[in-house]
Amino acid sequence: MLDLKFIIKNAEEVKKNCLDRNISADVNAVVNLAKERSSLISELDDIRAKQNQNAKLMKSKLTEDERAELIKKGSALKAESVKKDELLKSVNLRLKDMQAKIPNMTHPNAPRGKDEDSNNVKYIFKHPTEFDFTPQDHVELGKKLDILDFDAGAKVSGQKFYFMKGDGVLLEQALINFALKTLISKGFILHITPDLAKNSVLFGTGFNPRGSEAQIYSIENTDLSLIATAEITLAGLYSGEIFQEKDLPLKLAGYSHCFRTEAGAYGKSSKGLYRVHQFSKVEMFAYTRPEDSDAMLDELVSVEREIFERLEIPYRLVECCTGDLGGPAYRKYDIEAWMPGRDGGSYGEVTSASNCTDYQARRLNIKYKSSSKESNFIHTLNGTAIAVSRAIIAILENYQQKDGSIIIPKVLRNFMDKDILTPPVKSK
RNA sequence: GGAGAGAUGGCUGAGUCCGGUUUAAGGCGCUCGACUCGAAAUCGAGAAAGGUCGAAAGAUCUUCGGGGGUUCGAAUCCCUCUCUCUCCGCCA
After folding, report:
1. Percentage of residues in chain A with pLDDT exceeding 90?
2. A354: burial class by Cβ within 10 Å (0-12, 13-18, 19+)?
3. Where does A186-279 have alpha helices with state H?
4. I need a labelling partner for A359 at 20 to 30 A (CA). Which of A77, A256, A340, A397 fits?
């Protein structure tokens, strides 16, 4: 969330930012509630100071009358403070709720626009793959190769679930290992995180566990939800802590399963593996000093690019416009891989890297102590190393041969002990 | 799942039985200073985080795992939740 003082001081800019981002938030109401909160705190503190004084007086030797007098006075003060405290609590509750709806500020260079049509293409790697035959989509390919079974997923768990089978399993593990190995070489500390997290951690990361647009599965009768990304657990990992400046930047990698309800997300372009309820992902997460977060975002993007370039998959790099940023992001870059089978060939998002500045840190209370001994909110960033399901779409569709076999990208061959996937020979 | 013991500042650790003299002792580590050519040792001093008001100086409040309660007053009493440890059971 944004700092209250910042909102009050820069109310007009905050309002404009909400408009740019196509988010409705009542900034005026937040400002008014914040002022009400301040004066309530002052009043309550005054009463508490008097209570403390009164209690101190009770320690000295007193006559019965004096004692009775002080107790009476204390009772009155207490009644007053309880009343004030209740008022303050209700203001805080309303304020927090409204404050959370205000998105992060936006990098001045981020393109302005309502939706992804306004995103800026920054770079294009290779040209869309060309075929001298009609390419199939990954669903057909996966079925023929017998590595992907959506029917079985639907039978056992419902639509948008799937089984990976045979060489598909090897391919998934190869992608994960390739990503993990790449990240080690870049100085990331590897983690396998829990696949469930407390709702307070979800909230702190900017996900709304039970909101109307919740993408999140929550576990009945508990305070837990299935995570939508390891960003949640890696952000929660240091919640409430204070870093020493010398330990920054800290780069983490998190391998987890990701769960998304994807309510209402149907249609052609979300066919097959593109939008599923469960997938595996290796996520990058970084904690930095505020002055280093811009450079760290570039670093995360360069790792993502390297991964897809070494997989030799055509992609384009886009910078997301204001309307496509999501609440916590200050600036965001996506990599969209070429997917020949998607609507007859189109780019589809495979990674996303965001600089969240201090927006998550403020909610999660993560700080760092600088050499000047001052502590400040830290900056957090996240980026996808490999979202396995979508990477598999890109590999199957770009590397397919006329006979339906798939050439394995060079960098994955050692991890799989295979360089080609071929459809099984049907026994008669 | 059962039984028991715990959670105190950067770390360690007293205080909790029996509420007020604690401004949360002592130790370790840390910072600064003295001594020293320099260091160690020693001596002296300092140091938590956050909120509110304030231009600032400062004032004041909150925080002894979380939440709630009793009381004029809670680290201390009561309720509740979470987590940790020991033993037992079950288990990949």
Report:
1. 62
2. buried
3. 199-205, 230-236
4. A256
Catalytic site residue A94?
no
Q: State the Cα–Cα distance between residues A7 and A417, nearest whole angstrom.
A: 56
Annotation marks residue A260 as catalytic:
yes
ipTM: 0.82
DSSP string spanning A151-184? Answer: HHHHHHT-TT--EE-THHHHHHHHHHHHHHHHHH
Footprint of strand B on the protein (CB under 7 A): A 4-5, 37-38, 41-42, 44-46, 48-49, 51-55, 58-59, 70-71, 74-75, 77-78, 242, 367, 373, 375
- Could you give the 3-state DSSP secondary structure of residue A421? strand
pLDDT in tens, A336-359: 999 999 888 999 999 999 999 999
How many angstroms from the chain centroid is the CA of residue A307? 20
- Residue A244, Ramachandran bin (φ over 0: left; ψ between -120 and 50: alpha; else beta): beta
Catalytic residue among A81, A172, A256, A260: A260
Q: Which two tokens stand for residue A306?
A: 């390297």
Closest residue by C-alpha to C1' distance, nucleotide B51: A41
Residue A164 pairs in a beta bridge with A148
Q: Is residue A60 annotated as a catalytic residue, yes or no?
A: no
Q: Is the pTM of this model over 0.95?
A: no
Question: Cα separation of A21 and A67, whole Å?
Answer: 62
pLDDT cut 70: percent of chain A above it: 96
